[in-house]
Amino acid sequence: MDLKEKLISSFLAFEDTVDLDNPVHEVRSAAIKNFEEKGFPSKKEEAWKYTSLNSLQKIDFSIFPKQETALEYKDIKKYFLHEIDTYKIVFVDGVYSSYLSETTHDGVDVCLMSSAFSKPMFQPVIDVYFNKVASKDESLTTLNTAFSREGAYIYIPKNKMPKKPIQILHLATGNEAALMLQPRNLIVAEDNAEVQIIERHQSLTENEVFTNSVTEIFAGKDAIVDYYKVQNDALTASLVDNTYISQKDHSVVRVHTFSFGGKLIRNNLNFYQNGERIDSTLKGVTILGDKQHVDHHTLVNHAQPNCESHQDYKGIFGDSSTGVFNGKIIVDKIAQKTDAFQQNNNILLSDKATINSKPQLEIFADDVKCSHGCTIGQLDDEALFYLRSRGIPKKEATALLMYAFANNVLQSVRIPELKARINKIIANKLGVRVGFDL
Amino acid sequence: MLEIKNLHASVEDKEILKGIDLKVNAGEVHAIMGPNGSGKSTLASVIAGKEEFEVSEGSILLEGEDLEDLAPEERAHKGIFLSFQYPVEIPGVTVTNFMKTAINESRKARGLEEMPANEMLKKIREKSELLEIDRKFLSRSLNEGFSGGEKKRNEIFQMAMMEPKLAILDETDSGLDIDALRIVANGVNKLRNKDNAVVVITHYQRLLEYIVPDYVHVLYNGKIVKSGTKELALELEEKGYDWIKQEATV
């Protein structure tokens, strides 16, 4: 039985575990139909030309974890940003761990989708926001919608800001030979609210994990949302991250994606601007080696006048790693005075590494400023010689140049401890110690 | 200090240096002049160990030690410093952090402990004052957005920090206004002592009014075709390079 069939037949078993009278279930039923029709995307589709899910579909993934595995905080501490106090929403093999989490209902709601689905007090929010910006058509998104039951639920009412940043951590313990996870997150920041979120997926063993995640983010008028994705997973962990963002007037949403590890990562990051004077920022640093594969597909839909978007993705590819950047910008006819900027710079460290970079601009308005640039190159020999002539050994000099290359993206990280952590991960990845924090 | 014997170097099979002999003693300043394309910058890069040049013949000795198999960083650890004609911009790495890394890497290579932070700060303060560099400048990204003059001043600041045995200044005067030129030259002169040496590579005589050379060499077509004292630089300034070219052809 292939993975698609297994998922479809598992849906019946899944239905035994959820409240079928809940209106959400109609959404799930419609979604599984769509997935049944479409199946997994194939390389024949333009959007999946460079990323194949074929080998993943041959793996016999468990769809539901059999048992709960207890973890000690000290063993997983390093996957948290533990240097600062944060709220934490932690899932172990897809199951919420209250022991490892720190949630709140103090003025803001930082809790679980399972609660939000089942408790009447959250119903109004679910009615207004759940599955409203996520695609009802894209097959993997609808697959997630069909199985949506658990994930992070974050609701920040008007004019509120949580006391501290929020971390969402998805852990896989490897108690199944192969496990598929489908977390579903909903994040709502009402008018003039502000929130900072860090999300990480982490497999703790060499067993296969395939995560198909959907996150919906809604930013009300003047809201500010900072979302950081840390992807530094095991070489047997694959992730398809589908993130959909809806923004209202004057809101600011910044998504930073740090892709350093994993077997296969596909980031579908979609911004929909539904108001004026909106600022959308999409930034990424990708550093890969081995046979790793990361595919960034971004979409910014400028639907109203006077909005901005800033995209800056840097990629460093070593060994036989492969990267994809596909940046689509749509400027609707009425979206005059749009200012859309897109940049993708890549360094190939080896002859076997590959990057496919493609800007895709569809502009229907006539008074806009859209710029895009894409570079693919090697490390600058002259710069390397300059650093080495100052006594800095080749390896360290190479690392410094990579830092310099990725620096623009790191600069806009607003949590200093996270920035330091990312720098540390980069330094570890490059195997150097440069003697100072950049 | 430095002894170059019959040095031949090429890039992509094109020979650029065609047999250079040069001897620089401690305490001396040598100027290397010559028309564009004569091989001046190549000579500087080859001494500093740039790998794209292939040394096909001859040798470079520093204090009697052959540098042939040494990487650029190892040459730096031995005390060679090259002030670049076009310093490279390194965004996100401040001047201060860059200098800390450079100095500590050199110390590590010499088997020394890292320089204590307070000592480092003191040194940075002292040397930046010497080059009349504003403190704010030191927390900026290395060379990023620096003017031509700021880049060159920063090169000499780095030289002051590294305290090399042999400093090679490659066209340090190009793009400098007269005030910046004076500051840079003054910095170099203050760093001179009986134990180090300076090689000034320049197209013009102007810098040599401030950094007075003991010897002047003229490089033409990959060879040193004439050597003399500082008066030779004046003669070149007055008569240009054509007579040198003619003499060399004859």
General description of the model:
The complex is a heterodimer of chains A (438) and B (250). With 438 residues, chain A is α/β, with parallel strands linked by helices. Chain A has two domains: 3-274, no CATH class; 380-438, no CATH class. Chain A is 22% helix and 37% strand. Chain A is built from ten helices and 20 strands. Chain A has helices spanning 3-15, 24-38, 54-57, 73-76, 113-118, 123-129, 139-146, 381-388, 394-411, 416-430; strands at 87-92, 95-96, 109-112, 152-156, 166-172, 178-181, 184-189, 194-203, 208-219, 224-231, 237-247, 252-259, 264-273, 279-288, 293-302, 308-317, 322-331, 339-348, 354-363, 369-377. In chain A, the strands form two sheets. Chain A has a ten-stranded mixed sheet, with helices on one face. In chain A, strands 3, 4, 6, 7, 9, 11, 13, 15, 17 and 19 form a ten-stranded mixed sheet that branches. In chain A, helix 8 packs across helix 9. The model of chain A has no long low-confidence stretch (mean pLDDT 94). With 250 residues, chain B is an alpha/beta fold. Chain B has a single domain (2-249), classed as 3-Layer(aba) Sandwich (Rossmann fold). Chain B is 38% helix and 28% strand. Chain B contains nine helices and twelve strands. Chain B has helices spanning 40-48, 72-78, 95-109, 117-130, 135-138, 148-162, 178-191, 230-239, 242-249; strands at residues 2-11, 14-24, 29-33, 54-62, 65-66, 80-83, 90-94, 141-142, 166-170, 197-202, 215-220, 223-228. In chain B, the strands form three sheets. Chain B has a six-stranded mixed sheet, sandwiched between helices. In chain B, helix 3 runs parallel beside helix 6. The longest helix of chain B has 15 residues, at 95-109. The relative contact order of chain B is 0.19. Chain A binds chain B through residues 380-383, 385-394, 396-397, 400-401, 403-404, 406-408, 410-411, 434-436, 438, and chain B through 45, 48-52, 71-73, 75-77, 80-82, 84, 86-88, 90-93, 97-98, 100-106, 109, 114, 141, 158, 162.
